[in-house]
Amino acid sequence: MDRKWMYSMNINDPEFVNGVQSFLIAAESNRVAKGDIEIYCPCSQCKNFVPYNNIKAIEYHLLKFGFVCNYTCWSEHGESLVDNSTSIHVSNANEKNDSYINDKHENLNEMLHDLEANGDIDQEDLQQLRFLKCKNRNIPIVAPKEMYAKPWNEWIEYEAIVDLHVEGKVDISFIHWWAMHLHSVVNGLRENKFTFLNPHHISSGECLRNDKQVVNHILETRRLNLGKEIYVAPYLKGRHWLLFVVCPNLRAGYIVDSAIEDNERNYYFPEIVERAFEIKFDWTMAKCFQQKGHWECG
């Protein structure tokens, strides 16, 4: 089958876009037929090594990065290597393809060893492969019991791990995990004056839509941490991370933001903090020099 459209035209060309749609239909049909949960992404970044359970993520990657080289036969997605047709083979004849995919996982440790020894792969691809060898590719994280008034647990999704390596995006679960780690560290100190707010509960979206719940979270954290003087609050504003450091005993707050906004009036959070503590704060914009990159904030 002629699939010149995969490599001979611009990824914004309508024929390429339509071709991507035909691939997605074929890949999804193969996934359903085999009873799989995930589909391997054949973009030039993932190279059929990285699986997704959201087909929209694969569509996004293909329209952004294009296909991996020499993949005109969609062998990883149910297409026969013999006739290179567009039909999806779902019978017992597909056992060879199943075996190939299973062998990919079973032999991953050996492949990683060879790639590391020969230096034939860049570090980003190597990190992706290391994550692939984990049977459970989502990472469960649980907040320490004394961190919040109510139990909290979540997952670092595998897609978030891939996005970190491929696109440099820092998911909220990473920031929260790091806050949990810092909480555990400072909680072991003889004089611990720190406590942390849950970034899921205080983001700009939550402050805008559920300001009363944000106030309640602050008050619950305060009641649980009587005597603590410093509240550390990682804050997601749109797609940008910044940090609030709240010191109610000093009636002071500090804003660490590499985007360098003018003052606290550019954020929803300071006003909610003042409502929760029922005092007026003196807010200071800390000097924070922006590093290179779109996601340096995280």
Topology, pairings included?
Blueprint: H1 14-34, E1 39-40, E2 51-52, H2 55-65, H3 95-106, H4 108-118, H5 123-132, E3 139-142, E4 153-156, H6 158-166, H7 172-187, E5 194-196, H8 199-202, H9 204-209, H10 211-224, E6 230-237, E7 240-247, E8 252-256, H11 269-277, E9 282-285
Helix pairs in contact: 1-2, 4-5, 5-6, 10-11
Keywords: Hydrolase, Protease
Protein name: Ulp1 protease family, C-terminal catalytic domain-containing protein
Organism: Artemisia annua (Sweet wormwood)
Kindly describe this structure:
InterPro entries: Papain-like_cys_pep_sf (IPR038765), Transpos_assoc (IPR029480). GO terms for molecular function: peptidase activity. With 298 residues, this protein is α/β, with parallel strands linked by helices. It has helices at residues 14-34, 55-65, 95-106, 108-118, 123-132, 158-166, 172-187, 199-202, 204-209, 211-224, 269-277; strands at 39-40, 51-52, 139-142, 153-156, 194-196, 230-237, 240-247, 252-256, 282-285. A hairpin with a 2-residue loop joins strand 6 (230-237) and strand 7 (240-247). Helix 4 (108-118) runs antiparallel to helix 5. The two termini are 45 Å apart. Mean pLDDT is 80; it is low at 85-108.
